[in-house]
Structure formats: structure tokens, C-alpha cells
Write a structure and sequence with these properties.
The protein is 29% helix and 21% strand. By secondary structure, it is α+β, with helices and mostly antiparallel strands. Helix 1 runs parallel beside helix 6 and helix 4 crosses helix 5. The radius of gyration is 30 Å and the shape is globular. The relative contact order is 0.10. The mean pLDDT is 90.
Length: 566
């Protein structure tokens, strides 16, 4: 729905309001025409129902207005003596059109000084809940949104199980594009697992003023451009989603509008210079560790390495033991002379499992191991005299990778050697031909809503042969710090400015073993109440919060005690 269509839609709403309420305005001592003037009619209506004029603002805020309209409908009929429970349900279930019946068929009187206090405890409880939801939705949509890190693409900068507050106002809150949606949820209603929104109507993209734009090194939450999943982590048939209902991703912004970006041997270069990362960025890469004396799992665990496998060699294994191992998710195979081997992730076989299955085994200590590590982990591991060398794994230049943007055989790029590539800037013009269209086709067609067709050596945009294209908005390049275990812009390309959601600013809770069930969660005390941005090691403010909370309770206790004695 474009701007003109929205103006027409709003005018239609005003006509519907006028036709359904003008007699009620007259019975309340107002003029009939006052029900027809946009915005003014809402101000007058607030006076008629004895509600504050600032409610009018809430009626024009997307999503919030969906909650406020039923409240106003109910308040309107109650101002004319319709206080029964079935009146309330009728006006809500008919989407307000019950007011038409009252307007034309009922001889009602306006109650000027009606009491606004609910007549029952249930009514007061419902009223409080409604406005709590309105307030929470307003904060969630336009100011601060809670978010949890679900995947390891930013390990170890942000960790799986980190609970974040994401600021909407840093980059300017993106107003909802989906006009009709359930409040306080994203694309799916919990428990019933049903879609939480209607695809139409859609509101034109608009962003409130912010005080900064995404910069290189910023961690950014955005709507995943390639999202077609019904539910995250659930395999299902793909669906087409509105921008603001796409799954939220969090990555590091490494390229901004107008930049030329390349990845060379695993490192990002911007305009020919190596990108200098924030000192809080803990970039991880796959490394191969070599040692003639063997690389033990203990050494890897001591430095906090990740994503490495372990192999156990049992003296013997029965069919029952084999079945139980597989039931517990372990991989069992054979090597060499049909000798059984057990493969696990970095956690290995727990002593409980070994005792339970009565296994007799030893862990292999190979001379080389592949592990995922940060620079600090590598430096620490190199201090060990038993380690001969550590080499970062890099896919050679010219070797085509799997699922690498722009998914075109002409560009034989991979995640370690990629580009150079231009990051589009609003107002910039680029040459369009069969070599460049793979980069910009999705932008021109999906993000900027044009028809694109390639015929032979010619490119047609909206039916006309094109040799250039001027971009209508800015674009960004997002990558995970866990470089070899992150699906990011290297797979699906640019992130449009209208996909930007916000900026993570605060970790208020953090759990280890987050993906292993709530019974296995363990607090990461050093990460609770820490900031996401800044320099130096993150500092926890949790103890200060606890002291402040205790101080408040002590102050409140003595205040109430003093008041009771007065």
C-alpha cells in the first residue's frame, strides 16, 4: 500500500466514523459536522467520553491503535448508557459497527458526568491489564525490545543464552509496516503456533528520527533478508513475510553505504584497508593445531576452544551398548580392522554414561586437531611447549564456495576470499549489465519494487532496457564474529536500511547451556548486567543493582513506618 492508497484508506475510515456517530455527536450537544473532520473529530470524541485528549495520539500509532480502538468503542457506547456485558461484547465482536445500530435505531441519552471507575473488581482488573499491554507494546515497539541470542554466529562476543535489551531509538524506531498484528509477539503466537499477523494492509516504510546510523563495528539487530521460515529452527514449507515480520538476526556491521568491501584470507578489508575491529570483538576462526606429542582435549578445554570433536576407542562394545549410545545421540562407527569408535562433540562422554554403560575405553589424542578459537585462545595455546604449530584454515582464492553471494558461477568466491564488492548508497548510480546484475537484482526487484528481466545480454527494468540504476535507500554488510560458523551477508548479500531493527545495548541475563533445556541452565554471573558497547572488558553492574534494590526496600520500609506513626 503506497502513500496515496493510505490517504484514501484513512479517508474511508473517517467516512465510516462519521456515518456511524454523527447522531451521537448531536445528542451530546455537538454539531454533526464535527464527526467528519479528521483528527478534530477524535479530539471531540475524547471530550464526549471524558478521556484525555492525548489518547488521540495513541489512535494514530500503528499496532497501539489496534488496542485502543476497542477501548474507545466501549467507552463510546457506555457514554450513552450501554453498560451491560453483552453490549461490550457486541461492540467488540462487530468491530465497532454495533455503534451504527445505537446511532440509528436506539433512542439513547448522553451521560455527561458518568463515572469512569469500573463497577466491579473484574472490570477494574481488565482495565488495568489493557493499559498495561498498551504501555508495554508502546515500549516494545518504539523504544526497547528484549532479545535472546539463539545461535553462535557472534560467539564469543555475544553468546548463545545472552538476554539483551535492543534499543530502537539509537537508529530511530522503525514504525510497524504490518498494520494488523498481535501485540508483544513477533511472527508467531506462542502456544498455538499460528501466524500473528495479516499480510495486508501494509503501511509504507517510515523511521522515526534517531541520533546515529549504523557504523562499522556496531552490532546490529535486523530483519533477516532471506527469511521465509514459518518458525525459527522448524523445517517447514517457506512463506513470504512482510519486512517487519521476518526473523530478527544479530550481526556485526562491517560495511556501510558507499564502501568497497573484500574478504582476503579470512580478514575484512574496507576500501583497500584491513578493518580494525573493536577491542571487544572476539572473532573466531577454525584452526588446525599440530603436535607430535598429540593434541589433547584437555588442552583445548583449558583455553576455551569450541567446535572440536572427540574420538573414543572402546576395548569392546555390545549391541546393547551400541543401541544405548545411539539413543543418547552419540555417533558410533568403525575404523581400520572393524574396530569400533565413538565420536562426540567437545563435551565428550560423561563419567555417568561411561559407568552406566560399563564402557572400557580410551580417548584418542591425535597429532592434529581442528578447533574454533579466538586470537586470545590461539595465543594462550601457543604458550604450551607441546604445541608445534597452529594454522588458520583458509579456503584458497579462486575456489568457489557453497551458498556464497551472489550465487553466480562467474564469481568463484568463498567465505574466506570474497569480493571486492560495492555496498550501495542512497542516490548512488551504478552500471547495470549481465556482469553486475547478479549483485543488484534482489535490491532492484525485492527491496525497491521494480520488475527485472535479463534477456540475452540485455537487462530490462520495468520493461525498459537499462544500463544504469540509482539506489533509493542505503545498504549495509553484516557478518558474524564466529567467521566460519555464521550465515551472514556472505550468503544472502546486502541488508537494506528498512530492515534495520535496532542496536543491542545491554545484557540483563545470561545462561550457559541455553540450548540444553532449562534444567541445565547455569548463570554466567560475569555477563549479567553488562553493556554490549564500549571498550575494554565488559564490567558487570549486577551487584550495584542488588545494592540499589536493597536500598530502595530499606527506604520504603522506614518511609511506611514513619507514615504509620504519624
Amino acid at each position: 500500500m503506497n502513500g496515496t492508497q493510505w490517504i484514501l484508506f484513512i479517508l474511508i475510515i473517517q467516512v465510516i466514523h462519521f456515518l456511524g456517530t454523527w447522531k451521537l455527536y448531536v445528542k451530546a450537544g455537538r454539531k454533526a459536522w464535527e464527526a467528519a473532520i479528521p483528527i478534530y473529530n477524535a479530539i471531540v470524541l475524547m471530550q464526549l467520553i471524558n478521556r484525555p485528549k492525548w489518547w488521540v495520539v495513541l489512535l494514530f500509532i500503528p499496532i497501539i491503535n489496534l488496542l485502543m480502538f476497542p477501548v474507545v468503542w466501549v467507552e463510546t457506547i457506555r457514554s450513552f448508557g450501554k453498560n451491560k456485558l453483552w453490549d461490550t461484547w457486541l461492540v467488540i465482536l462487530t468491530l465497532g459497527f454495533y455503534i451504527y445500530y445505537i446511532n440509528y435505531a436506539e433512542d439513547v441519552n448522553y451521560i455527561e458526568d458518568r463515572s469512569l471507575k469500573p463497577k466491579t473488581g473484574l472490570g477494574e482488573w481488565v482495565s488495568s491489564i489493557v493499559f498495561a499491554i498498551v504501555a508495554a507494546t508502546l515500549v516494545h515497539t518504539y523504544f526497547i525490545q528484549p532479545y535472546v541470542i539463539p545461535t553462535g554466529s557472534l560467539e564469543r562476543t555475544l553468546r548463545v543464552g545472552d538476554f539483551l535489551f535492543v534499543s530502537k531509538f539509537h537508529f530511530g524506531a522503525r514504525t510497524p509496516m504490518t498494520a494488523i498484528a498481535a501485540p508483544m509477539v513477533h511472527d508467531t503466537i506462542p502456544l498455538i503456533k499460528k501466524r500473528s499477523y495479516l499480510n495486508k494492509p501494509q503501511i509504507p516504510y517510515f523511521r522515526l528520527p534517531g541520533f546515529e546510523t549504523p557504523k562499522k563495528n556496531d552490532i546490529v539487530v535486523f530483519s533477516w533478508p532471506a527469511d521465509t521460515v514459518k518458525q525459527f529452527f522448524v523445517k517447514d514449507k517457506g512463506v513470504k513475510k512482510p519486512i517487519d515480520k521476518k526473523s530478527n538476526y544479530v550481526k556485526r556491521c562491517v560495511g556501510t553505504p558507499g564502501d568497497s568491501l573484500a574478504v582476503i584470507d579470512g580478514f575484512v578489508y574496507i576500501n583497500g584497508e584491513k578493518l580494525k575491529l573493536s577491542d571487544r570483538a572476539k572473532v573466531m576462526n577454525n584452526y588446525t593445531i599440530y603436535s607430535q606429542k598429540g593434541v589433547s582435549s584437555r588442552l583445548l578445554a583449558e583455553v576455551g576452544a569450541d567446535d572440536y570433536s572427540r574420538k573414543y576407542i572402546p576395548a569392546s562394545i555390545t549391541q546393547n551398548q551400541l543401541n544405548l549410545l545411539r539413543q543418547n545421540g552419540f555417533q558410533v562407527g568403525v575404523e581400520g580392522d572393524n574396530k569400533p569408535v565413538i565420536f562426540t562433540d567437545k563435551k565428550g562422554l560423561s563419567p555417568d554414561i561411561i559407568r552406566q554403560l560399563r564402557l572400557s575405553l580410551k580417548e584418542e589424542t591425535p597429532r592434529q586437531r581442528l578447533a574454533n578459537m579466538t586470537d586470545d585462545m590461539v595465543a594462550e595455546l601457543k604458550k604450551n611447549q607441546n604445541i608445534d604449530s597452529i594454522v588458520m584454515e583458509v579456503i584458497p582464492k579462486g575456489t568457489a564456495g557453497y551458498n556464497v553471494f551472489p550465487q553466480n558461477p562467474y564469481y568463484k568466491w568463498n567465505v574466506d576470499n570474497f569480493g571486492p564488492i560495492y555496498i550501495p548508497e542512497e542516490g548512488a548510480t551504478v552500471e547495470i549489465n549481465t556482469r553486475t546484475i547478479p549483485f543488484y537484482k534482489k535490491i532492484i526487484r525485492d527491496y525497491e519494487h521494480n520488475e527485472v528481466k535479463v534477456t540475452g545480454n540485455k537487462v530490462f527494468i520495468n520493461g525498459k532496457e537499462a544500463s544504469s540504476y540509482t539506489f533509493k535507500q542505503d545498504y549495509y554488510w553484516m557478518m558474524g564474529d564466529n567467521r566460519d560458523h555464521s550465515e551472514d551477508s556472505r550468503a544472502w548479500g546486502y541488508v537494506a536500511e528498512d530492515h534495520i531493527v535496532g542496536k543491542p545495548v545491554f545484557i540483563w541475563m545470561s545462561f550457559d547451556n541455553f540450548d540444553e533445556g532449562i534444567s541445565n541452565w547455569k548463570f554466567r554471573w560475569d555477563r549479567i548486567f553488562t553493556t554490549v558497547g564500549g571498550s575494554g572488558e565488559p564490567r558487570s553492574y549486577f551487584k550495584y543493582f542488588i545494592l540499589l534494590l536493597i536500598g530502595w526496600f530499606v527506604f520504603d520500609f522506614f518511609r511506611k513506618r514513619k507514615k504509620s506513626k504519624a
